[in-house]
Structure formats: structure tokens, C-alpha cells
Specification:
The chain has nine helices and two strands. The protein is mainly α. The protein has two domains: 2-47, no CATH class; 53-164, Homeodomain-like (Arc Repressor Mutant, subunit A, Orthogonal Bundle). It has a two-stranded antiparallel ribbon with strand order 1-2. Helix 1 runs antiparallel to helix 2, helix 3 packs across helix 5 (90-101) and helix 6 packs across helix 9. The longest helix has 19 residues, at 51-69. The radius of gyration is 21 Å and the shape is elongated. It starts with a helix and ends in a 7-residue tail after the last helix.
Length: 172
Amino acid sequence: MVVKAELEKLGVHYTTIELGEVEVDDAISVEQKELLDSALKKSGLELMDSKKSILVEKIKAVIIELVHYRDDQIKINLSDYLSEKLNYDYTYLSNLFSEVKGTTIEKFYLSHKIEKVKELLVYDELTLTEIADKLHYSSVSHLSNQFKEMTGLTPTHFKILKDKRRGNLDDV
């Protein structure tokens, strides 16, 4: 909505607006581009026109959607999934992502999986076994080891700390 409003303010005609992507009818002037960039930054958004930056953002979006918003399991590994989704060779995607972000796709993916584990632990609606299954870990042990490696805590210890921080309403 913010992007749409700013484009309309500047009189820029667009064909489509999707999350993270806008297709404009005509080329926009340098001045319009600078004004749009400035307005978007005020709203916490960023104008990207570099094909590399756009592709990296698409990689991030696919991974975030996969980890945080999909409940069904993918039947192929992450590299094949990304290649299929974005129509690029995985080696190219991997090298580009590392060059632009300074980390690997795998580390980005794992950090999002661990954040999702934390979220599910805080909600306290699923067992660790159910969380491992939901996030496609081969075992609870694998999830626990990866969680400890990335956070320094076991999932159980994380949950205990979370519970200690929350006070009883009667004690308030």
C-alpha cells in the first residue's frame, strides 16, 4: 500500500505491484527514482534496482516463506527447490547470495529454522518431536544439536528460561 501510494503521488504508472516487486509502464526519471527511494526509506522500505540485489531478496523470500509460512514438506532438497522456484542454477544462486550477504544460503536457512523452533517453543503448543517433524528434522536429536550449536542452549533450557521470564499474574 505504501509503494502504491508513493507511485501514485509521483505520477508513476505501474502494471503490477506484488510483495517486493513493481512493474512500471514507462521508464521513470532519475528525479522520480530518488524521490521514490527517499519516500520508501521513510517507511522502512528500500528501492532496489540491481538485478543481483533483487535476486538475493527473492532467495530470502522463498526461504522465509518455506520456513515460516508453509506447513507441507518439500519433496526435494533446498538447493533443488530454490533452483526450481527461481529458475537459476543453484551454484550461481549460492555464490551470488554469499557475495551479497556475506553468509551462505544454508546458514541463512538454518538461522530461520532455529528462529521458527524458538517461536514454536515459546507458543508451547507442540512437543519437541512435533516441532522436529514440522520443520523436517531427521530426529529430535538433530534438532537439539543444531539448536544448541546456533544458540548455545538446548531447546529444553531455552524453554525453561522463557518460562522463568514470564511471571505469574498473581505475583504482579
